[in-house]
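Translate structure to sequence.
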């Protein structure tokens, strides 16, 4: 297992490699697949389906608010739609789609053949899918949650929210957070221990850095929301505990503290991968190394750390000690520094590079404009006097969407256009791409900019109607028209992707002349990613002259061997054999899902989940081959 100089021929036996790393054919092969490319594509496709559902729910709300005293939706139905929209966007789309991009791209970028724990990867997807189906399946049994995507007690307690809707919401959180934790663990290990030889820490691509910081944030943040939703809320509702029941000595503010300890890092969990996408796009399209690489990495880490010290700025109106308010005001303003560092590094990259303007770059420019706008209103809301006036108004709704849609969705769409040739082997239509961008950009600003004005005029969020004469009519109508412009841009985006997937121009391995290793693999990549693992000699690996590149030889082709390297310098450490495709992750997820879904009706189902899950885990880990070999 040594590096070898690159020669015109390929050392590996491609037929044997393909047979070793391919999934089995047919339905059984699809269900048992553990290939990171297939699982990543499933995450991305499933998340986009949930995006469509969440977008449809947003349109229903905008139709209801388009004019005063509208009767399109009743108050109860509006609360249900509002809850489904927020829950879908936050838990079923935003985090999973970023994870799907990471699952697909990170192994390619670090020069390996799969993620660290491929069966865990498959299990995580099945749990995510089960959670989404469970939430939307409840609609057929009149169990739609209606307490908001945050489900604050006591309004989410059994006294004010009878039925099983809130229980279903709380248990859905468990599904999706288990999935997120699975992805986080495997990406951390993949990035730190499975990099190609020579890819030291100062040569890791920016997107991989962003996924690494995001994964550590998930590991520390996600247990908090599971505690809030399950230990506090669900147990109070189903087992008769009183963690957040004020009538029995509980404290509903405890729920808010624990929920927002997850909730504000959640914003950066969604946002940080988008920053890595922007850096990747700009480096390729400016034909120069990203400016300020160490500063960008440190700012990502700084964002991840400071994000855990901001949660109370969601609670300024609850009545806090002044010293606490001062601290959280300071940290809320401080995080603008780390985000600003990245903006200036990108501007310096644009200034000193030779820019090629593609659809992906359009989305980057749109992101910078919208995110700066959202960041400025965020600094405003960090000021307690202003926050007390704007709290729970549409000003906060506008800020929230400017940060999340502008800061995550626009870079995501840019990244989708950028990596579309790698996903599909086809080039996406640039003209339709630019048309969809302008519609999305104009529609977004037409929808959410008027909400700043609505908030200043006193329109509170989570109201389903309003009386005429308050000065809200025109702004609400403008926002509704903007929402339909967004819909048109989204439909063109989908049509462009489907059309280009079937009949777009064939893509070369590296159509953009990128600098990172994923562009060395085929378009789309073979199941084994690389015939021979590459050796990295610089941070822009593919801009190194071909004569100076080398490859790794010595890995067996007849079994799924991967190379394990050390953390600091990515020196080869040993080889490890990955497991074969298996149905056990699916069966294990099915067992846990049955038990978790049933547990909202009776505690007995937890025992069912334990038994079925244990059977699945025994089959999953039943030894059938040595997993490690000598160096």
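Result:
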């Amino acid at each position: 297992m040594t590096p070898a100089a690159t020669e015109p021929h390929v050392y590996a036996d491609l037929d044997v490699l393909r047979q070793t790393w391919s999934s089995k054919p047919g339905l059984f092969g699809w269900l048992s697949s553990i290939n990171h490319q297939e699982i990543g594509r499933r995450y991305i496709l499933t998340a986009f389906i949930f995006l469509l559902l969440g977008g449809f729910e947003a349109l229903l709300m905008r139709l209801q608010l388009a004019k005063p005293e509208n009767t399109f939706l009743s108050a109860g139905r509006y609360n249900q739609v509002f809850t489904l929209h927020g829950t879908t966007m936050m838990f079923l789309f935003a985090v999973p789609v970023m994870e799907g991009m990471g699952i697909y791209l990170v192994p390619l970028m670090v020069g390996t053949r799969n993620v660290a724990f491929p069966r865990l990867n498959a299990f995580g997807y099945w749990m995510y899918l089960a959670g989404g189906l469970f939430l939307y399946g409840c609609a057929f049994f009149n169990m739609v949650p209606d307490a908001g995507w945050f489900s604050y007690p006591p309004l989410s307690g059994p006294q004010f929210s009878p039925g099983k809707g809130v229980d279903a919401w709380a248990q859905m959180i468990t599904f999706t957070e288990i999935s997120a934790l699975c992805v986080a663990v495997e990406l951390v290990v993949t990035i730190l221990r499975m990099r190609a030889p020579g890819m030291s820490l100062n040569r890791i691509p920016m997107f991989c850095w962003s996924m690494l910081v995001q994964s550590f944030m998930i590991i520390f943040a996600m247990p908090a929301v599971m505690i809030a939703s399950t230990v506090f809320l669900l147990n109070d509702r189903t087992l008769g505990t009183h963690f957040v029941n004020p009538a029995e000595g509980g404290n509903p503010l405890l729920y808010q503290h624990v929920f927002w300890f997850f909730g504000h890092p959640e914003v950066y969990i969604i946002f940080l991968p988008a920053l890595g996408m922007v850096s990747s796009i700009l480096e390729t399209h400016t034909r120069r190394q990203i400016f300020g690489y160490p500063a960008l990495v440190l700012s990502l880490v700084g964002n991840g750390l400071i994000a855990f010290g901001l949660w109370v700025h969601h609670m300024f109106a609850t009545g806090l000690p002044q010293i606490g308010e001062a601290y959280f005001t300071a940290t809320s303003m401080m995080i603008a520094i780390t985000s600003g560092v990245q903006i200036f590094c990108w501007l310096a990259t644009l200034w000193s590079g030779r820019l090629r303007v593609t659809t992906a770059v359009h989305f980057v420019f749109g992101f910078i404009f919208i995110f700066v706008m959202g960041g400025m209103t965020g600094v405003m809301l960090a000021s307690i006097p202003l926050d007390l006036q704007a709290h729970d108004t549409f000003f906060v709704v506008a800020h929230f969407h400017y940060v999340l849609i502008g800061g995550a969705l626009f870079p995501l769409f840019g990244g989708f256009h950028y990596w579309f040739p790698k996903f599909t082997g086809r080039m996406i239509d640039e003209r339709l791409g630019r048309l969809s961008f302008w519609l999305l950009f104009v529609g977004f600003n037409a929808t959410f900019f008027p909400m700043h004005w609505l908030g200043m005029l006193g329109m509170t969020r989570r109201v389903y109607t309003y009386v005429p004469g308050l000065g809200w009519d025109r702004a609400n109508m403008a926002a509704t028209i903007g929402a339909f412009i967004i819909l048109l841009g989204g439909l063109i985006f989908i049509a462009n992707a489907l059309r280009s997937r079937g009949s777009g121009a064939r893509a070369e391995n590296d159509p953009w002349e990128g600098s990172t290793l994923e562009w060395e693999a085929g378009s789309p990549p073979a199941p084994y990613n690389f015939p021979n693992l590459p050796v990295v000699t610089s941070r822009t690996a593919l801009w190194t002259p071909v004569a100076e590149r080398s490859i790794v030889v010595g890995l067996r082709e007849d079994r799924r061997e991967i190379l394990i390297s050390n953390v600091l310098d990515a020196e080869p450490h040993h080889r490890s054999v990955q497991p074969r495709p298996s149905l056990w992750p699916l069966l294990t997820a099915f067992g846990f899902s049955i038990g978790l879904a049933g547990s909202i009706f009776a505690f007995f189902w937890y025992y069912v989940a334990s038994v079925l899950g244990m059977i699945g885990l025994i089959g999953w880990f039943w030894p059938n081959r040595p997993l490690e070999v000598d160096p």
